[in-house]
Amino acid sequence: MSQFDFTVLDGGQVEKMDNIFFDSIYNTSKATEARIELANYFDKHPENALKFRNSYWRWFVLLCWAGFYKLSSDELITVINRQIPVAILLDIDVLRKLLSYFRLNNSEDDVVSFFKRVKLAVFES
């Protein structure tokens, strides 16, 4: 069942949906499902990130960075490549999150190659 209808929302609707998002989705058991739904949508429609920058895209960024440590390395690269500017605007400590991710999720054998992929994604973002 879809949690989002992906229609353009006016200011009042965004505010109402913000309340629903933070009360019912963000930091709940529904967060992962919502992040996956939003990821699928924006993978298919990347051009809509700008159109939905104050609603669905913003919620997607918040969900990705809230569950940052659970992301696979490929998901992490995509998030970094597409979301760093918005994450910074949302006052997310990107550097701290990245350093913690490296510490928690990589063995010494692959950390150098992974870091190179992350570095390239940062420069492309």
Can you offer a commentary on this structure?
By secondary structure, the chain is an all-alpha fold. The protein has 7 helices and no strands. It has helices spanning 11-25, 31-44, 48-51, 56-66, 73-89, 94-105, 111-124. Helix 2 (31-44) packs across helix 4 and helix 5 (73-89) packs across helix 7. The longest helix has 17 residues, at 73-89. The radius of gyration is 15 Å and the shape is globular.
Write the topology of this structure:
Blueprint lengths: L10 H15 L5 H14 L3 H4 L4 H11 L6 H17 L4 H12 L5 H14 L1
Helix pairs in contact: 2-4, 4-5, 5-7
Total number of helices: 7
General shape: globular
* Low confidence ranges: none
Strand content: under 5%
The total count of strands amounts to: 0
Give the C-alpha Rg: 15 Å
Largest sheet: none
Order of helices and strands: HHHHHHH
| Range of helix content | 55-70%
Question: Mean pLDDT, as a whole number?
Answer: 89
Q: Kindly name the structural category.
A: mainly alpha
> Quaternary arrangement of the chains shown?
single chain
List keywords for this structure.
single chain; 125 residues; mainly alpha; 7 helices
